[in-house]
Amino acid sequence: MARDDNELGSFLRSRREKIDAASAGVVDHTRRRVKGLRREELALLAGLSPSYYIRLEQGRDRNPSREILQALARALRLDDTERSYLWSLAIPSLDPAENDVAPARTVRPGVLQLLKRWADLPAFIVGPSRDVLAGTALAVRVNPAWSPGHNLIEFTFLDPRAHTVYPEWDEIALQAVAGLRATAVARRGELDGFVSDLRERSETFRALWDSHDVYARTMGAKQLRVDGVGILRLEFETFALTGPEGHVLYVYFPEPGSAADEALRRLA
Q: Using CA atoms, how far apart are residues 88 and 90, in angstroms rounded to an integer?
């Protein structure tokens, strides 16, 4: 099943196991046989009762206060995205049953008109599960995954072309899953079926999903190998489109005057 019956506990455990005990100030003269911090050590750092923290991680207590969440976030050194994710798990704002609706796949006409005007840029729109709903012709030329009807996650893990298109495939895969997890908790229940299917079809996806890494990457750079051109380094920005559909616009662009800039001009 895509949904973990104890998502909060699983996330806390995954973050706890990533903390280096020595850097956290834990003095231990014994030979450690556990990854990261012990549960009792994290409880001490967060100022909590060890027995209470153990109940929380095991899912026997699911109602931590805001103060407890803040203390755990500090002790675990969570970044802003991880803090928001922790908050969403502990204090969900929406019952999954209330979000059990089919996502809208139709892009607004005005947005489609904008895409038509951006003939010189790879740009495309995705839904919450990363289905590509619309895009520019140049986007399709640069990356086959950016074609309407494709899914970015399925392409990354199930299409053999992905390892060619993405020279830094390992990093792309990690980012893809961590971003999908951030979306999944924000739209609780909506992506369960999609995630469950990918877990069955890809061992790598399952391992990355079960690592509980989460972050929302709204900007950055990516290397792509383009047929007949070579490797291009493109920066990108993402824009969440207002509305309940959860659509996101991706726009890729080269550094002005770079080799990638000239290559995109030729492709366009």
A: 6
